[in-house]
Write a structure and sequence with these properties.
Elements (H helix, E strand, L loop, with lengths): L2 E4 L1 H9 L6 H8 L2 E5 H9 L8 H12 L4 E3 L2 H14 L3 E3 L2 E2 L5 H13 L3 E3 L3 H8 L1 H12 L4 E2 L1 H11 L3 E3 L1 H10 L13 H15 L6 H15 L2
Parallel strand pairs: 1-2, 1-6, 2-3, 6-8
Antiparallel strand pairs: 4-5, 4-7
Helix pairs in contact: 3-6, 5-6, 7-8, 10-11, 11-12
Length: about 230
């Protein structure tokens, strides 16, 4: 069965933008499983249910779980592989003679689940994790510029990490909302205002960006231009 594993960030972004409704039609279109790990569920439902500020979002996500739009995945492999990957990835870069903790347990559990399931992709907005998977040299340069100091690289740990995540594709919430827009899953929000489609696309793209999705202004502009061309055909 095809599968995609979700980190907490993209789902939170969808929830805070009133966009969780795109998940059922996206899942139907995909014809596969949408999974979250146990640690991601704790971030999305268990902990927020103990608060007042984020309880409503947690209830909406719980409903998606009860309707099997999202499913929780757990296994011995995930529980064992996550700490191994976490320790390895947090011992890749070092500065001031100390390793830098750059990733967290929940997002690494997503990677472990994707490895086990041979998933098509993980959905993750966190830039650090995606760069570590896709472009660690750029990650190293960003760290160097941010810290204003030299950054050392553990080549052995990096090689082992890259081998572990080889073939895993990372997508963001910005891609999810773009796909939803292209398939008409957001058409209920089209108004009679001028440039209604352009404004709709722009609004959802900026909505997820401002809620934590690592996407640049240039990328958003490119997506909007492409969307405008699609609308004319």
């Amino acid at each position: 069965m095809k599968s995609i594993i979700f980190d907490a960030g993209p789902i939170i972004s969808l929830a805070t933008n009133n966009l969780l409704t795109i998940l059922p039609p996206l899942k139907k279109k995909y014809s596969g499983k949408f999974y979250i790990t146990e640690s991601v569920k704790r971030e999305l439902v268990d902990h927020p249910m103990e608060t007042k500020k984020f309880k409503f979002e947690a209830i909406q996500i719980e409903r998606l779980l009860e309707d099997s739009i999202l499913e929780v995945i757990d296994s011995d492999f995930i529980r064992n592989e996550t700490p191994r990957l976490l320790d390895m990835s947090n011992k890749i870069f070092s500065a001031y003679k100390n390793y830098m903790k750059i990733v967290h347990y929940a997002e690494v559990s997503v990677i472990a689940a994707a490895i086990e399931q041979k998933s098509d992709a993980i959905v993750i907005d966190e830039k650090t994790t995606r760069l570590l998977m896709e472009n660690p040299k750029l990650m190293m340069e960003i760290l160097r510029k941010t810290l204003h100091t030299s950054v050392s690289l553990n080549e052995s740990n990096l090689k082992e990490f890259r081998n572990s995540v080889k073939g895993i594709r990372a997508i963001r919430s910005v891609e999810l909302v773009t796909i939803a827009y292209e398939h008409g899953f957001l058409d209920e929000y089209i108004t009679k205002m001028p440039d209604a489609r352009k404004n709709l696309l722009e609004s959802v793209l900026w909505g997820v960006k401002l809620n934590g999705c690592a996407v640049s202004k240039d990328e958003i502009s490119q997506i909007i231009r492409l969307g405008n061309r699609l609308n004319r055909h």
